Amino acid sequence: MRDIVFTRRNGWIPNVIREDGELRLMLGAGADANHEPRTFTFSIGEAHLAVIREDLARHLLLWSAVLPLCDAAGTRGRLDENAAVALLDPILLSTPADVDALFQRIRWDRGRLIAHGADIDLLERGQVCVAMRAATETSNGKRAQEYHANRRRTERGAVLGPLDAAMLKYTGQYLHGATVAKRIPGAVDPALLPEVIRVITTAEQACAGMRIGRDPRRGKRATDKRDWDRMAATVDAAVRRAHPELVDEAVRTVGFLMCSEAADRSRSSPMEDDAEAAGDRAHSGGGARKSILSFTDDKGVEKKWLSGGPRTATAEFWEFVGDRSAADNEVFTIEDEEMGEGIQLHFYADSLARITTVHEGAGDGSDPEYRVEYSLVDGIGGYRNLVSAFVRGGCAALEHHGSWMSDVAEFERARRRRDAE
Fold this sequence. Notes:
Number of strands: 10
Helix content: 40-55%
Shape: elongated
Largest sheet: 6 strands, antiparallel
Number of helices: 17
Strand order of the largest sheet: 6-5-7-8-9-10
Order of helices and strands: EEEEHHHHHHHHHHHHHHEEHEEEEHH
Radius of gyration: 33 Å
Distance between the termini: 72 Å
Structural class: alpha+beta
Oligomer: single chain
């Protein structure tokens, strides 16, 4: 039988319960192997209950000191109740000076106290009891997050000025650098917002006209890392030149914002590039344009493309790659059976082979003869150019796109030289 004896408005602060006639402190902390919250209890006395009822600061200090014991229990271990009970008298019944001395020797959750209003400067000086005079039952998790973020910056020697901090708050990266960048003008001090906007304008002007393309080799929503790096470098240089007072972290967050927005625009657009699609359709009256193509992957899955449909061959092919590409599926082929030619893309090696039929198999059962030539490819942009050229003009149109080698050993030497550079 379990009855609640004392609880505070904030239900996360440990409660006092009576279980089988015994007073116990109950708190939730951590999670089990199934990601469900864990609950821990340990015995307390009537004198401890009296202090917990009357003194919020001591209650919170006890919580802060017990939490590391809960963390040590992990996902399925037992709470060290003897260690928890040993904290009761020193924290709840001792003098402030003794409590301060105790907190110099034990592990405790600093962020928990800061979230409940502790004076950070006093905590840093080891005066935990005085620091808790302004404590509140209401928790402000953002305050603790800001403290930890600033502490991490201090540990790595980074010092933010007011504009630096404003830039990080504007992009939503002040607390967590891994957070997706976005525009949050309301998070910035109104007095600093015009300066922030000037920095953003500098970045926008620097990368105007640049785009981050898709990279279907890594999935339907993946974008080209080279395009990202190129845009980030352009923004970085422009912002540093126009605003030399900004620290590295503030400059990087602006570049991350510009690249994130460009990548989102790319992901929300159709797979085909509009200019490329227009170029394909411009050849609709010419004999070079393909009318039927077959796409296959390394798993034997095939897809046919027919002219006259709503989408271009290049768009359909890259959609096929985005759907099928995986770590164990990195070879894709485009074949024109009617013309007896095709290309094979080797994503694992950044290379491509063009294949043409020299002569068909004879009626006597002899196999057809093919000419296979290899070329190195420079990233997804290189693949896009080669695929587009093949779709428009077949293997002959690839002649001026790269250096073609029919000798496999020569090609492998060239590939190793490139990879070593």
